[in-house]
Design brief:
This protein is of the alpha+beta class. It is built from 12 helices and 6 strands.
């Protein structure tokens, strides 16, 4: 390794780990033009670095990889930091270019530097241990971690997918052997007529092999096609709509309830929507929306132990999911929680016309139903998320394939703009 390249790698590593948090965000730069400028600058820098590449990899040096990552992280810091949603595009652009053009070992080193740099920036934003920096107070640490980790992990995933695809292609594609050098006329031994015909037939077969290279069957690599993944995603969304049907049905049978309901929080996290219901009442309001934290049912979202009463008439107000007055005396509502993040996912509710219809044993059974519902919701969400990532990876593969086919920097820029 040359001394200049070693110095460049050391400087880039020091900047990415300790220097990036010192770069101020330039608040007067519009987010969208700044993001596009940084994305195009990253593509142009990668194209310029290919001129110095050697061997089978257009970007063949580790110093070039470190320099490109330094450019991207510096630009992202100027544009608001890793937690700014607009900075996802240049980071993914860097991941695509590195995954297509760089040496796999150098690319892995770049990913390691990115992860360390993101961890240092997150620690600085949250706790501020670097000298000379007074970080702004962070109200929600978990939200900051999610905002900063999501683009980084997506870039790492894209890069690893491209590196894996390159390895598969290199192991799959075979090239015909080079043609053998024919002996000079004066060195050609004398042959009989039959031997001459055989030699001519062999030469004809060899020329056919060279002119028609073996074709690659793409069916194996295209099993997870875009249409296939989209159909899986559609099915997962349908399953999401029917997630709690079985749970609500068995709740209704177990508690002999007038109405059993499975509510889910909407994407905003402020309203409960009906996901499944089993009722004997003709007055149920299937399209009801209940504000979280308001009313008898909405307030149950704020109570870890849930809400249970055997004398509902002693409470003011009515049940929001009925369109007319019902003779309901007992209600039991319990939260459905995500066991990993401890986030509220929804609410299970049963009611009855009987006074004091629900006992401690019923509360224990209801707690089991909430755990089953939590597992079902989490599994469905995870499947939808995995299919979304798979679709993104498929799109990134299309971009990478177009970039690999681009021979001039103008074509690379055109591919990036179209993508």
């Amino acid at each position: 390794m040359k001394s200049f390249e070693f110095f460049l790698i050391a400087f880039a590593a020091f900047f990415l780990i300790a220097g990036a948090p010192y770069l101020p965000a330039l608040g007067d730069i519009p987010a969208l033009p700044g993001m596009w400028a940084l994305t195009l600058a990253t593509a142009a820098a990668a194209v310029s670095l290919t001129k110095a590449g050697h061997g089978p990899y257009p970007i063949g040096s580790l110093g070039a990889i470190c320099w490109l990552l330094t450019l991207v992280i510096a630009g992202i810091q100027f544009l608001g930091g890793l937690d700014h949603p607009m900075n996802l595009a240049p980071l993914v652009t860097w991941a695509v270019l590195q995954g297509v053009l760089a040496n796999p070992m150098h690319a892995l080193f770049g990913l390691l530097l990115l992860l360390i740099s993101a961890a240092m920036q997150l620690a600085e934003r949250a706790y501020g241990f670097l000298p000379g920096i007074s970080p702004d107070p962070v109200a929600d640490i978990s939200a900051l971690i999610t905002a900063m980790a999501s683009p980084v992990l997506l870039a790492v995933l894209v890069n690893l997918v491209l590196l894996g695809a390159r390895r598969i292609i290199r192991n799959t594609v075979t090239f015909p052997p080079p043609p053998s050098i024919a002996p000079k006329p004066e060195e050609t031994p004398a042959t009989t007529g039959e031997e001459s015909k055989e030699e001519m037939a062999k030469a004809a077969r060899a020329s056919t092999m060279l002119e028609v290279p073996p074709e690659i069957n793409p069916s194996a690599s295209q099993y997870y096609s875009r249409s296939y993944l989209e159909s899986l995603g559609t099915q997962a969304m349908k399953d999401k709509q029917d997630t709690l049907e079985e749970v609500v049905y068995f709740m209704s049978r177990n508690f002999k309830a007038r109405t059993s309901i499975g509510f889910l929080l909407d994407p905003s996290g402020n309203k409960l929507t009906v996901n499944a219901v089993a009722t004997k009442s003709p007055n149920f309001k299937y399209d009801c929306l209940i504000e979280a934290g308001q009313g008898l049912i909405g307030e149950a979202m704020t109570k870890p132990a849930g809400f249970v009463t055997g004398n509902l008439k002693s409470y003011p107000g009515q049940l929001d999911y009925y369109t007319a007055q019902e003779n309901i005396n007992s209600v039991m509502a319990m939260r459905v929680m995500d066991n990993q993040t401890h986030r509220v996912l929804g609410l299970l509710v049963v009611d009855s016309e009987n006074v004091r219809a629900f006992t401690d044993e019923h509360k224990t059974s209801m707690d089991r139903f909430t755990r089953i519902a939590s597992a079902l919701i989490t599994s469905t969400d995870l499947r939808i998320q995995m299919q979304r990532f798979a679709l993104q990876a498929d799109n990134q593969y299309e971009i990478a394939k177009n970039l690999a086919a681009a021979l001039r920097w103008e074509e690379v820029l055109e591919v990036m703009v179209e993508s």
